[in-house]
Structures are given as structure tokens and as C-alpha cells.
């Protein structure tokens, strides 16, 4: 289970409650290789239904990461990471999907300036807004992610499809990027899409600014309205809930997911 938000200087867990029906025989909490909080439950009884009810209250501080200073050498693209950082960033720069026709490369490079250096802040903003404005969001319940080339061909996808496309796009430019899974707060008349379920976006490493969060589905730069739960190198490492079970061939494998994010009055 990946339900508990990651703590950091921009968000802090005040309290968390997890109710599981039927009660598990054993439950333990560990941190995975990426530092995400993972719950592991074991059961020893039969049940007609398996239900997880997670309630979390957090203190969330909106941050626009690109407002922070960027190291002088990284203010324009291209730039190189420090030799001391490269061993830890290298796997996050590696491409994960085949692109024999370099379709993702061509899409990403259309945002580079032709008449001079490309400002890093502008490049990341234009890439993020390029997906928000140029693609159609379509909810899809099936497990898995479209290949970035398929998303480009269709011109549509889910939040996780758009996150993977943007990850591969910035990686094609030599930047380190990671997949983020979590929750989206949708304020009234906020114009956000992707609420009511788990949400996906990405983060890119910019020297001086650190890991910058980008939500291409909603065109968000920074972490506003984004509640981070898991950060991974590959989306397959960020399954909110998975496991094995034993039953009859006729058993129903249906699953429903509902996520509600509300803002509390700070004075309460």
C-alpha cells in the first residue's frame, strides 16, 4: 500500500488513520528504495470484500520551485550536472521507452529557441503547458501507461500518460526526471482535471532549484494543489495498491477507488 504522503519541507503529515476490512493478521511499514512509505498487510481469514479506508491530514505549503535561484551554469539549456551528482542522477536520465523515429525528441526540441540560448525556466514551463494545451485528457481505468510515442500519435491520454511523456521529453534533453504519484486538490471552479482518484505528475532536477514538480495534465509548475505520496524512477514502482489473493474462479475482481481532498480552515 502506498497511501501515506511523503514528508518534506513543503508538506507534513499531522495525523494518519488506516482502517482495513477484514482486519489483517499483520501490518508493517517500511521505506522502499526511493524512500516512499509502504504498508504491507497479511491476512489469515476469508472475506467477501477487501476494503482500505485511508484518512490523512497534512500541512501543505504551496511552492513555485522555479521562483528559486538556479545555478548560473544551469540558467540556460544545455547544461551539465555536477560530476558528484551524476552517479545518483544517471538512472533518472536513462530513457525507458523505445523511440526509433525520435518522435519524442522532435516534439521536445520544438520548444528550444532557434535564435539564441533557451532559458531553462521557460523551457520547462513551455513543455508543461505544451501538453496541457496540445493534448486531450481522457480518464482510463485500465492498468498501465501508454508509450510516449502512442500518446503523441493519439493526442490524448491520462495523467500518468502525460507524466511519462514529459519525463521522456526532458530525459531526451539530458535532464534527470522522476515519476510522482499522489493526490490532486481541486478547488471550486479551479479548472483542474484528474481529481477523484490517484493523480500522477513528474519532477525534474534543476541545479540550484532542486527537484521541480511539473503537472502537465493541469499545467502546474511547482507543487500547488499536488499532494506527493510516492516518487520513483519508473511508474511501475508506484502502484498505490497491489498484492495477491486466493479465491474461486467465479469471484468478482472488480475494484472501486475514491479519493476526496478537502481544504480545512487554518483557524480550525
In short:
The protein is of the alpha+beta class. It is built from five helices and 13 strands.
Word description of this protein:
The protein has 268 residues and is α+β, with helices and mostly antiparallel strands. The protein has a domain at 65-237: C8orf32 fold, CATH 3.10.620.30. The chain has five helices and 13 strands. A hairpin with a 3-residue loop joins β10 (199-206) and β11 (210-215). The radius of gyration is 20 Å and the shape is globular.
Q: Which short descriptors sum up this protein?
A:
268 residues, alpha+beta, C8orf32 fold, 5-stranded antiparallel beta sheet, two-stranded antiparallel sheet, 5 helices, 19% helix, 27% strand
How would the blueprint of this fold be written?
Blueprint: E1 11-21, E2 26-31, E3 37-42, E4 51-60, E5 76-77, H1 86-93, H2 103-109, E6 118-119, H3 120-134, E7 136-137, H4 148-154, E8 156-157, H5 159-172, E9 177-184, E10 199-206, E11 210-215, E12 220-221, E13 226-232
Parallel strand pairs: 7-8
Antiparallel strand pairs: 1-4, 2-3, 5-6, 9-10, 9-13, 10-11, 11-12
Helix pairs in contact: 2-5, 3-5, 4-5
Which geometry do the CA atoms define?
Answer: globular
Helix content: 10-25%
Mean pLDDT across every amino acid position: 93
Rg over alpha carbons = 20 Å
Strand arrangement, major sheet? 12-11-10-9-13
Structural class of the secondary elements? alpha+beta
CATH architecture field of the domain at 65-237: Roll
- CATH classification class of the domain at 65-237: Alpha Beta
SS summary, helix count? 5
How much beta, percentage-wise?
25-35%
The secondary-structure element order is EEEEEHHEHEHEHEEEEE
- The low-pLDDT segments are none
Q: Termini separation (Å)?
A: 30 Å
Counted beta strands: 13
User: What name does the CATH topology of the domain at 65-237 carry?
Assistant: C8orf32 fold
Largest sheet: 5 strands, antiparallel
